[in-house]
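BUG-381 | component: ligand-complex export | severity: low

The export step for flavin-adenine dinucleotide jobs runs without errors, but we want the raw record kept on the ticket for reference. Input record follows.
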Amino acid sequence: MIDFEIPEDDSALLDSIDRMMAKEFPPEAYREADKNYQTPWHLLPLMGDLGMLGLPFPAKYGGMEKDWRSVALVNERLAYHAGIASSLFATTVSFGGMSLMTYANESQREDLLPRLIQGNARFALALTESQAGTDAAALITRAQKISEGWLINGRKIWISNAQASDYLVVACRTTPHSRGSEGISLFLVPRQTPGIQMTPLEKLGHHCMPSWDIGFQDVVVSENSLLGEEGRGFKHVLSTLQFSRAGQAANSVGQAQRATDLACQYAKERTQFGRPIGNFQAIQHKLANMQVRVNQARLCLYQLAWLIATQRPCRLEAAQAKLVASEAFQFVTKEGMQIMASAGYAMESDMQRLWRDAGLFTFGEGTSEIQRNLIAREMGL
Ligand SMILES: Cc1cc2nc3c(=O)[nH]c(=O)nc-3n(C[C@H](O)[C@H](O)[C@H](O)COP(=O)(O)OP(=O)(O)OC[C@H]3O[C@@H](n4cnc5c(N)ncnc54)[C@H](O)[C@@H]3O)c2cc1C
């Protein structure tokens, strides 16, 4: 059976996260950053100092050689303090680091993993295009082999943190006239490469994680910027989905618990008709349902973390954890807004930010419909 005891060293790390977040990015700093569309990049090297960014990686690159249970716990705790901290952590570890571990070559790993583990290498995934969202394999950005390496032309949309990243992992079609997931390759493109143009996109939530439309016009990259095998890029992305889904689930669980705690606290303090609103059964039942949904999501997350840690198949459970957690996050923030009413609707309230940010999780990195499709497929349907 799965053991729920938190090992002593993980427990100490979680305490360090509490201290780091209270000092370096307390709730008032998060409110200001959200208002001013600023990303707390200063957290990344601090996470590096605490060893968090190296958790699942081999010691020879500076990693801690811990397993995915520790990663999930850390990610959830970061999210409880600030969703953006969890996003920065997950993009670095679950996407950047695990991509390097899974399909990069040894010289790319030796070059990039130690920097990533210290919090000094920022990555962004550039997959989505205007005509290729859920059907990501419909991408048409192309990379052509030339004498200097590769020539990239095309356009990507909705790429998180692209402008501030050091490297864009860009999915391109390298086999002309290929269709679907065949003939796609990944490239590690330094952000400053000439020919890259970025335009910011306005959006409802996630103000601390800017989104960019990226144009690639005759962008030349070297031969060794190919990440993984030529033509197998889409399969490479699929091979690391369990890590990014675990990251999304942990972020949702942490933030959903935060929203539930905020609403519960408010229900204890706010009085109407001469008593705390938490005395009304209508409010109690909402809060009970919220906590149950968060707990269900947490169990799905921990099950997934255990399956990854013990190297068992987990396609269904990865989709399930992402689905259950993201929908729980949306559910509890909607209920939280109702419980807090005008106090939640005010821009200085953390609840409205949580509610706005929750919107992304049921479609980013695979929509709820696609998670259900995947689960049904795993059930043999
Ligand atoms: C804030 C933000 C950050 C993002 N960050 C990144 C990033 O860093 N990198 C990146 O590459 N992308 C990023 N994305 C893109 C994101 O991954 C896509 O928005 C997502 O994959 C969904 O694509 P879409 O929005 O085009 O929706 P569509 O694919 O147009 O889907 C619309 C609706 O149709 C449904 N649908 C589609 N196909 C099916 C089907 N086969 N069965 C059932 N229903 C279906 C969907 O579930 C959805 O409900 C980001 C998006 C946002 C908004």
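Assignee comment: Attached the raw record above. The CA atoms of residues 268 and 279 lie 8 Å apart.
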